[in-house]
Amino acid sequence: MMTVLEDRIAMAESDTRWLDNMFERLEKMPVPEGYKVEIVEGTIYMSPQRDVHWHTIRRIVRALEDTFGMDVNALSDVRIDFPGRKNGLAPDVAKLRDGAEKNSEGHWRYEDVEFIAEVISKDTAKNDYGPKKTAYALAEVPVYLIADPYTGKCRLFTQPKDGDYVSDTSITYGGDVDMTTTLLGLVLPTAEFPRD
């Protein structure tokens, strides 16, 4: 008889093999240039990268570099497998802790993620606020930021607990996203974030 822990480990290994297989197949497909591909709860999503999207990501990465230096371990659109069912996610921005190393399969570990930022796309907004937010909270990502160029607002989620975030703060573009009380210790100005 398997214990609950052994059962969860077997399920996670099965999901990782499935995700590896699916991503290998996707790499062989003619995915249009400029599209981001991720698997959220077993469903494949392809979304176009727009200028507004990239300019927002660039400003977030620049703020991380200004605070942590040019060698900050910040990634964009790189696969990281997260808890939950078949979540091979590619966050718009992910900051990993100092000293983070890839696992034996060559993937970054979700346990090393300190910060994630997602920039809303019309087609995938429900994922950023729904299953991805849940996956990030289950992974205990300390700081999760959503930038929404359609509403001109940021949502800052902190204090992950039991698959959700205890703190949820809304900041209108033009204001500063104050993360000085988090392990990031930075203030992110949004006055120059582009609107869509």
Task: Summarize this entry quickly.
The chain is α+β, with helices and mostly antiparallel strands and 196 residues long.
Describe it for me?
- With 196 residues, this protein is of the alpha+beta class.
- It has one domain: tt1808, chain A (Alpha-Beta Complex).
- It is 29% helix and 33% strand.
- The chain has helices at 4-28, 51-68, 125-129, 131-138; strands at 35-40, 43-48, 74-75, 80-82, 87-89, 93-96, 108-109, 113-119, 143-148, 153-161, 164-172, 176-179, 186-189.
- The strands form 4 sheets. The chain has a 6-stranded mixed beta sheet. The protein has a 3-stranded mixed beta sheet with strand order 5-4-7. The chain has a two-stranded antiparallel ribbon with strand order 1-2.
- A hairpin with a 2-residue loop joins strand 1 (35-40) and strand 2 (43-48).
- The longest helix has 25 residues, at 4-28.
- The N and C termini lie far apart (55 Å).
- The model is unreliable at 1-11 (pLDDT under 50).
Number of strands: 13
Under CATH at level 1, the class stands as Alpha Beta
Q: Supply the CATH architecture.
A: Alpha-Beta Complex
Largest sheet: 6 strands, mixed
Spell out the key features of this protein.
196 residues, alpha+beta, tt1808, chain A, three-stranded mixed beta sheet, 29% helix
Q: Secondary structure elements and their pairing?
A:
Elements: H1 4-28, E1 35-40, E2 43-48, H2 51-68, E3 74-75, E4 80-82, E5 87-89, E6 93-96, E7 108-109, E8 113-119, H3 125-129, H4 131-138, E9 143-148, E10 153-161, E11 164-172, E12 176-179, E13 186-189
Parallel strand pairs: 4-7, 8-9
Antiparallel strand pairs: 1-2, 3-6, 4-5, 6-8, 9-10, 10-11, 12-13
